Amino acid sequence: GAGVSQSPSNKVTEKGKDVELRCDPISGHTALYWYRQRLGQGLEFLIYFQGNSAPDKSGLPSDRFSAERTGESVSTLTIQRTQQEDSAVYLCASSPQTAMNTEAFFGQGTRLTVV
Amino acid sequence: QKEVEQDPGPLSVPEGAIVSLNCTYSNSAFQYFMWYRQYSRKGPELLMYTYSSGNKEDGRFTAQVDKSSKYISLFIRDSQPSDSATYLCAMSVYNDYKLSFGAGTTVTVRA
């Protein structure tokens, strides 16, 4: 496809379970970003990748959160031992260079609900 | 105090009205200012991107930045029902990856 694709679109999980969220960036985009959008709040930066490396992980809320990117393409955000406060929409974006500007595009997000 | 403040609304206007949205911020180092539109169950899409102070116009949309007041605005002229969405302001110090977002204002344009 031409855009950023995220899967699943929706995920309901029980508290304490692990979840994996996937992001397929636009082909050729070397930079990839993860943001979190809680209900009624602005987007929060989580982590970004330049190629396969993650120079800035400062936004990850706790050590239960991790992310990786392979082949300068697909990225996976993993949340271990999910808590109710992890419920949010997780958004991925990609761009040709490291900048959230006119060349960066978001996916539709994964809506995570922890029950 | 949040770094970026945005009135969450909701805002309801009749078709054809001018929609006025705004954000205030506390970090005087912000230089890049953006407005995103987000339809329900979709990702944000970039509407306007401006650097430093001044006005920028794109069709029915006008973005204004007043750095002295730490205040940015988005105006939508001749609003249409298709403009019904949540509008998010965002800003950054550098032209880079880390944006600070407002909470978003939900707008409904009534036909």
Computed structural class of chain B: mainly beta
| Unreliable stretches of chain A | none
Distance N to C terminus of chain B: 37 Å
Helical content class of chain A = under 10%
Q: What would you call the shape of chain A? A: globular
Oligomer: heterodimer
Mean pLDDT of chain B: 94
Distance between the termini of chain A: 32 Å
Largest sheet of chain B at a glance?
6 strands, mixed
What's the count of strands of chain B? 11
Largest pleated sheet of chain A: 7 strands, mixed
Q: What's the SSE pattern of chain A? A: EEEEEEEEEEE
The radius of gyration computed from the alpha-carbon positions of chain B, rounded to a whole number of angstroms, is 13 Å
Describe the structure.
- With 115 residues, chain A is mostly beta strands.
- Chain A contains no helices and eleven strands.
- Chain A has strands at 5-7, 10-13, 19-24, 31-37, 43-50, 53-56, 65-69, 75-79, 88-95, 105-106, 110-114.
- In chain A, strands 2, 4, 5, 6, 9, 10 and 11 form a seven-stranded mixed β-sheet that branches. Chain A has a four-stranded antiparallel β-sheet with strand order 1-3-8-7, with no helix packed on it.
- In chain A, β7 (65-69) and β8 (75-79) form a beta hairpin.
- Chain A is globular and about 35 Å long.
- Chain A starts with a strand and ends with a strand.
- The model of chain A has no long low-confidence stretch (mean pLDDT 94).
- With 111 residues, chain B is an all-beta fold.
- In chain B, the strands form two sheets. In chain B, strands 2, 4, 5, 9, 10 and 11 form a six-stranded mixed β-sheet that branches.
- The A-B interface holds A 4, 31, 33, 40-45, 48, 56, 59, 91, 93, 98-102, 104-109, 111 and B 4, 6, 8, 32, 34, 41-46, 49, 88, 90, 92, 95-104.
